[in-house]
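Technical annex B. To support the medicinal chemistry partners, we prepared a structural model of the target in complex with magnesium ion, based solely on the information shown next.
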Amino acid sequence: MSWSGAVDTALIVADRVTVSYGAEPVIVDIDLTVETGDMVSVVGPSGSGKSTLLKALLGGIKPRSGSVTRRPDLSVGFVPQVEQIDWNFPVTVAECVGMARSKGFRTPWISRSERREIDAVLDRLGLHGLGSRHIRNLSGGQQQRVFLARALFTGAEVIFLDEPTSGLDVKTRHEVLHLLADLNAEGVTVVLSTHDLNGIATHLPTIVCLNRTIIGAGRPDDVLVPDVLERTYGSPMQI
Ligand code: ADP
Ligand code: MG
C-alpha cells in the first residue's frame, strides 16, 4: 500500500478523491493506492466516510472531483455489511454463490461442474455441507462467508469487506480474520473497513485512519499513535 501515486503493482489508485451526496463533501482529497497483496483496514468512527471510500474505490460512487483508476481487467468482489443484506431473498447458499457469475441473470441454473466448484469454495470457507441450506437460516458469520464465497467464485483478485466483524461474536470475529489472512497469504488482496480499532485493525499489516480525509496510513505501530488517533476519533483512544 502507498498513498503517493501509482506504481507497477497498483490495482486501484485514488487521486485527490472528493465525494459528496449533497452540498457538503463527505470524503475529501483522498490519495490512496491499493497494491497487489495488500491487506488494509480503513478505520474511523461511524460517519467518517469508510463505506463511502470503499464504494468510491469499487466504482459504485463517482467522485465529485479527483479520480479513481482501476487496472482495466481487475476483478473485484464486495462483501456488504451483514445488517444490510436482504436475507429473505429465496435462494440456497449454492444458488447465491452460483448467481455471482451470472451478472444479473435471475435464474440460478447451476451446472454439475459448477456445483462441484461451488462446493469446493464452500469447503474452503468452512461452509461444508451447507450448499442446499436457505441463506436466511445461517448465522451472521456464515452469511458473511457466503458473500466471500461469491467473491472467490468469480475469481476476485481484490475483495472489499465493509465492517466484516460488526455484529459477530469474538470467536467468529477471529475466524473471519484468520480466513482473510489465509486468503491474503494465497494472493487475494483484501481491503476492509471497521470502526472497531481494537478488534481487528491492530491485527492487520496496514491501517488507514479516516475522518473525512486520511489522517494517517501505514503500519499499525507507526499509525496508531496518540495524535493520529485523537484526530481520527475526535478524542483520546486507548489501544
Ligand atoms: P461510515 O461508513 O464511516 O460510517 P459513511 O461513508 O457511511 O461513513 O457516511 C459518511 C457520511 O456520509 C455520513 O455523514 C453519512 O450520513 C453520509 N452518507 C452516507 N451515505 C449517504 C447517502 N446515500 N446519502 C446521503 N448521505 C450519505
Ligand atoms: Mg459504514
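Notes passed to the chemistry partners:
The mean pLDDT is 89.
The first strand starts at residue 10 and ends at 20.
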